[in-house]
Amino acid sequence: MVKEKRQIVVPGETVISGNEFLPGDGAYRAGEDVVAGRFGIANIFEKHVRVIPVSGAYYPRRGNTIIGTIVDITFNGWLINFGGAQNAFLPVAEVPMYVNKNEMREFLDFGESVIVKVWDVKSRGVDVSMKMRGFGKVEGGMIISVGPNQVPRIIGKEGSMVKIIKAATGCDVTVGQNGKVWISGKDTDSEVAAKKIIEFIVENSVIIGLTEKVEKMIAEMGLDVEKVEIVAEDTDVEDKE
Fold it and tell me: Please, is 102 exposed, middle or buried when counting C-beta atoms within 10 Å of its C-beta (0-12, 13-18, 19+)?
């Protein structure tokens, strides 16, 4: 069994050779070689190979969590700017309570931020919902922007990196696949600490052994490293889309 391996690759570069390896996102087969189709981090886990881009625009997918801002209100829903080519549409039917058309601005007004889930992607636009638990209007805290392709490193394998940030700072952290991160803590200091950790992850997103470096940074900040190590002891950072 091949263990997880990472390296920076450029388009056309052979990542690994062998018919037993299976190319995934950002990779393709050329004879016995698995070749990078884009610039990024080559991730080899067991026998699966994919190349995770380190730059580029966000393209919404069904099931993604995104964070955006209300930019318009129609007779049957809200338009949300999430940084994509088109605005997302949140129908009145996809909010967790009944809202009369005359009360729509009271429920969600211009300029307010929301956490929503993508449930359909069409040529004419993106449909989203906030019916599920954990989705809704953003209240308090701060929203920071990162590169959409750095989001998997902030999330980590099975959410391991987010767990580290939460455990170290006591903040709630919601990561949108569109590159928006909402941080909500008990005070400004804890939110700023979480922001610094996320910025460190972004700045070092292409390096190997990122988890250990993040834990070292947290220790240098004087935060609760023991609690972080318990959360992360049987996990490693892996990108997740």
Answer: exposed
